[in-house]
């Protein structure tokens, strides 16, 4: 087993679920050791008890190309996902594609490239729950001069736009009581349901192919602890994905209108991201991936969210790419191991193209 694959075996075995900070930090320690053994300078930045890594062969916090991948994973679907399984070119296990295989491609690019372009990488640790520590570390002076690349997407494409994300917990209050005497109660769940139905009825329906629009999904609801109790409080979680920089304001105005008087809490928010797909740096990235893989690469938009949005304020192009694989967050998560080398080569090629 080559050293990179052995590293992946060890990181998968850590079962680095985001909530288990100690397990995620063990993966950070493994990555740090791997990078340092291969001559790369590594700075450990702690935030919220988590170890984020900045890797580069050049001193300082400023680089030409700033790479990013995350080391944490979602909970295992089955216990055996904590063991790497190799079947030819395909490897299986929690985190192999989302995102530890990508992190290895990033690490190997830093190791292999020794040219004039300043290449740096931040390996972060809580992307699966919002990536809240990454902007804290970026604020300590890390920044790109030319572009940022988040390696946390699908293969053979460059994501240059991502929808914004807004997840809100809404709480209604009423008067609790026994379900046999509803006239003595004020059902908080009814208030939530009535308000949600009103909002849903006016929310534009989204159907393929016209999907680059705002969407809403009810995802969680909680009310009484017993089947024969009318709830005095009830909560509903709504998950919105939006297009445009004003998306949060538009959505909050609707929430406040249709859930008037109810309490709410914003659980997660990520801004809308739109990069110029015609940018020269993104074009060079596209050509580099095509040369390394032999596959035509398209520019795409993404309905989901990654940590890419945290790089938008630098005013430099941001692209999201990723190795070949599938089954992220599922029981059959897999990675094409040969694609890790291909994407390592693509990043090295890009750095060489940008030397001038």
Summarize the structure in short.
With 356 residues, the chain is an alpha+beta fold. It has eight helices and 19 strands.
Overview of this protein structure:
It is a single chain. The protein has 356 residues and is α+β, with helices and mostly antiparallel strands. It has two domains: 3-162 and 272-353, Zn peptidases (Aminopeptidase, 3-Layer(aba) Sandwich), CATH 3.40.630; 164-270, Alpha-Beta Plaits (2-Layer Sandwich). It is 31% helix and 30% strand. The protein has eight helices and 19 strands. It has a six-stranded mixed beta sheet with strand order 1-2-6-3-7-17. Strands 4-5-19-18 form a four-stranded antiparallel beta sheet. A four-stranded antiparallel beta sheet has the order 11-13-9-14. Strand 4 (85-87) and strand 5 form a beta hairpin. The longest helix is centred in the first third of the chain and has 17 residues, at 21-37. The protein is globular.
């Amino acid at each position: 087993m080559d050293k990179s694959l052995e590293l992946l075996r060890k990181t998968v075995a850590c079962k680095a679920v985001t909530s288990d900070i100690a397990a995620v930090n063990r993966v950070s320690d493994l990555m740090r050791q791997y990078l340092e053994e291969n001559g790369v300078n590594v700075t450990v930045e702690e935030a919220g008890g988590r170890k984020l890594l900045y890797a580069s062969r050049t001193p300082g916090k400023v680089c030409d190309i700033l790479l990013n991948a995350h080391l944490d994973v979602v909970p295992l679907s089955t216990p055996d996902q904590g063991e790497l399984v190799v079947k030819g070119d395909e490897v299986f296990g929690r985190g192999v594609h989302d995102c530890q295989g990508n992190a290895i491609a990033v690490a190997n690019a830093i190791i292999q490239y020794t040219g004039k372009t300043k290449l740096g990488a931040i390996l972060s640790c809580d992307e699966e729950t919002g990536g809240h520590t990454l902007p804290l570390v970026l604020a300590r002076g890390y920044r790109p001069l030319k572009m940022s690349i988040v390696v946390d997407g699908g293969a053979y494409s460059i994501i240059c736009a991502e929808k914004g994300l807004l997840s809100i917990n809404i709480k209604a209050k009423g008067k609790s009581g026994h379900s046999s005497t509803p006239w003595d109660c004020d059902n908080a769940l009814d208030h939530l349901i009535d308000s949600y139905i009103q909002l849903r009825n006016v929310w534009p329906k989204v159907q393929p192919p016209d999907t680059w629009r705002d969407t809403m999904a009810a995802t969680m609801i909680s009310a009484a602890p017993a089947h024969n109790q009318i709830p005095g409080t009830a909560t509903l979680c709504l998950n919105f994905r939006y297009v445009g920089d004003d998306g949060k304001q538009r959505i909050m105005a609707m929430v406040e209108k249709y859930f008037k008087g109810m309490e709410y809490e914003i659980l997660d928010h990520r801004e809308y991201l739109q990069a110029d797909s015609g940018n020269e740096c993104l074009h060079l990235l596209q050509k580099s991936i095509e040369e390394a893989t032999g596959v035509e690469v398209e520019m795409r938009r993404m309905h989901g969210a990654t940590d890419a949005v945290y790089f938008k304020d630098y005013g430099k192009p941001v692209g999201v790419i990723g190795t070949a694989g599938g089954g992220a967050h599922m029981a059959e998560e897999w990675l094409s191991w040969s694609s890790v080398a291909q994407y390592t080569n693509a990043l090295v090629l890009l750095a060489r193209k940008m030397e001038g």
